[in-house]
Amino acid sequence: RRAGPNAISFVYYSGHGIANPDTKANYLVPIDVKKASNDDLWVNSFEQSQIVGRLRDRAPHATHYVVFDACRNELKVTGSAASQFKSLGSAKGFQPVQNTAGILIAYATAPGQTASDRGVGGGAYAKALAAELVRPGAEAVTMFRRVQLRVKTAIGQDPWLSIPTLPEVFLAGRTTVELDTGDRTSEQ
After folding, report:
1. pTM score, two decimals?
2. What are phi and psi of 153, to 5 degrees?
3. Phi-psi region of 40 (alpha: psi -120 to 50; beta: other; left: phi over 0)
């Protein structure tokens, strides 16, 4: 909030996610949830909309990038929560959310799908994001599109973006070519 309208936030979540079949709310499951039984799963997890809402409320003029690299295919849910989770059938992915002004939300996979977190040195989405984040010259929306294409090419998974109107942001800086000398310089 103190940084003003030029502030940028970047939030990355990697782990398990689940959508409550009754409320259709998406939840991020922390690693310290020891027992995913009964209502403990919902009480001890973080509701995605609250995270996004707090960013918007606390820094309404900032540009926010939120990445949910959450797989859904390995969570061991027990108790009554298990029957709710199983009732989702094959649609185990996050529920779609509406665009939120000033916040780009990137998902490792499309709504209703599961994301792979397998791979040496991290999952395909994490590796693609890490590689693209440090490449100068790409505006942030283009950078996230490159991540989508890399993941789709690598494993066939279809990352998804929720993109409102955002200012141009170059997370790794702009790269320009000096016409006189051909030298490459990086601007922040």
Report:
1. 0.79
2. -65, -40
3. alpha
